[in-house]
Amino acid sequence: MNKYNHEPRDARNQHKRFFAVRLRECLGGAWVRQQLTYVTTLFTMTVLLFATMGDAWARPLLATAPGLGVASSFAILGASTVTNTGPTVVTGDLGVSPGSAVTGFPPGIVVGGTIHAADAVAAQAQADATVAYNNLAGQACDTDKTGQDLGGQTLTTGVYCFNTSAQLTGILTLDGQGDPNAVFIFKIGSTLTTASASSVLLINGASACNVFWQVGSSATLGTGTTFVGTIIALASNTLTTGVSLSGRAIALTGAVTMDTNTISTAGCAAPPTSTPTATDTLVPSTNTPTLTLTPVLPTSTPTATNTLMPSTSIPTLPPTSVPTTSTPTATNTLMPSTSIPTLPPTSVPTTSTPTATLTPVATTPVPIPEPITVVLFGTGLATLFAAVAARRRLK
Questions:
Q1: Please, which of 45, 121, 180, 260 could form a disulfide with 380 given CB 3.0 to 4.6 Å?
Q2: Could you give the count of Cα atoms lying within 13 Å of 171 in the half-sphere of its Cβ?
């Protein structure tokens, strides 16, 4: 090759000319271009696939709300005792089992619920609460918060774990991100303590019904705390003066202690439980009612004084008169009435149709890729199909 001729075939060296031509044919051939198209398309699709699924893989495992069973209607549930001081208001059921002591009501009051002291309902609620506790304890952790104060943090759905104790000082914000089924679970190894005037704030659709605190020993809410969620403590729960709880306080082995508090199940509970009686259950009759028509005849007996009989006396005939015969006058004779008696209306038993109760089931949201990702992925797929079609045409 020289400065005037740049084509490989013009090269003076035969070896250089041969390899230059072959190299150009290989790099410029249809087969090479086709292979490069395949490689580029597959690389693009792989990048898009990881971009699409990367967000889902990086997202924490979705927390699952446990079923509470009978315990769902209880705002307060203790194991040994339930004690109150001051005008506490409990909205929902209040119970204790296996203990039986409930003190401080009044002055405390229970609204929209029943006090269950060592009865079958409270025992079943304790059993169901224990199942829920174990369910929470068995869920995998998404984030380890050991040693961190929850105050000042904003958290999204997930399972947050503390190997030992947990502390809340200030405001904890739970962000539902527009999902009303977002679940927040806090697994605490030992104690849960809140400082005075601390609070839990729910935003963007987060619900107190889906916040759960599994406490390994005892929970103590400081004076004036505004708290949300279901607290299931292995030992005891203490609500100091002025605490407001939107949820439940459940103690599995110890006591629940209150002092001028406001506790409500936050509209998450099933209807308050009641001890069933014989009148509470309607059993529809399977017998077909039969109407028997039995005519009843009047029992009145006509009296003899009502009937006039012809006279039997023989009239005295004067010698010159013609004997006269008196004609008896017929009178009305009372006969037994043959009218059909009127039967009183017979009530037909009504059967009540049981109404099925629908229990909302939380559904797991499915991550939806961004629109731009879908468009890019579709473009890459179309390119691949075009390359396959081109290869077929070349064959």
A1: 45
A2: 7
Query: What global pTM score does this model have?
Result: 0.57
Q: What is the pLDDT of residues 30-64, one digit of tens each?
A: 666 666 777 777 777 776 666 555 444 444 457 99
For residue 46, the model assigns a pLDDT of 74
DSSP assignment, residue 137?
A: H
Same structural domain, 112 and 161:
yes
Residues 38 and 181 in one domain: no
- Residue 77 to residues 264, 277, 304, 374, 389, Cα–Cα distance (Å): 13, 23, 84, 51, 70
Task: Give the phi and the psi of residue 117 in degrees, each rounded to 5.
Answer: -110, 105
The residue type of 2 is N
Choose among 123, 69, 71: nearest CA to 98: 123
| Long-range CB contacts (within 8 A, 24+) of 40-45 | 41/380, 41/383, 41/384, 41/387, 42/384, 44/376, 44/380, 44/383, 45/377, 45/380, 45/381, 45/384
Report the 10 Å Cβ neighbour count for 95: 31
The CA–CA distances, whole Å, from 9 to 3, 137, 213 equal 14, 78, 81
Residue at 265 is within a domain? no
Name residue 310's amino acid. P
Q: Is the pLDDT higher at 46 or at 192?
A: 192
Q: Which of the listed residues 217, 232, 260 is the one where a domain comes to its end?
A: 260
CA 67 to chain centre: 8
- What tokens does 63 get? 């927390």
User: Distance (Å, rounded) from C-alpha 226 to C-alpha 50?
Assistant: 43
Is 19 found in the same domain as 99? no
